[in-house]
């Protein structure tokens, strides 16, 4: 069986790092794109056309893009250290993170999306949304959702309490 080409959604969080670890353990030596989705400031500032504040936002956006590249590169370094062949990729689009992940998987002909999960539920998940849930429900690509260690421990504890 050949190793799939992975797209690992990565934002630098402990959950994303855990997803990299899991992907490397499950698919040793796989080729991976470590993907960071960012929204440019211009998407928030479209109504400021011609306003002097727009210049300041451009400076902030350039710095944010540099930080985004550093996050993706750090994720690729982590993936390489875990045994994957990895390359960083930053998306800069007004789309949501889940839309950007799906679009990148389509464009790159990815065979498997790997994404971490924070395990949000209830009102918090309703208000904030869930990137992993949105990807699962809207992509045609196989998707592996890796729960964080904290989420996994809580789920085990919950099941043990019921049993």
Describe the 3D structure.
The chain is α/β, with parallel strands linked by helices. Helices cover 50% and strands 19% of the residues. The protein has helices at residues 14-26, 53-81, 97-107, 122-128, 131-138, 149-162; strands spanning 6-9, 31-38, 85-92, 112-117, 143-147. It has a five-stranded parallel sheet with strand order 3-2-1-4-5, sandwiched between helices. The N and C termini lie far apart (38 Å). The mean pLDDT is 84.
Q: Report strand %.
A: 15-25%
Structural class: alpha/beta
Distance between the amino and carboxyl termini: 38 Å
Quick one: how many beta strands? 5
Low-confidence parts lasting 5 or more residues at pLDDT below 50? none
- Output the strand order for the largest sheet: 3-2-1-4-5
Helix and strand sequence = EHEHEHEHHEH
The percentage helix is: 40-55%
Rg (CA only)? 17 Å
Q: Overall mean pLDDT score?
A: 84
Individual helix count: 6
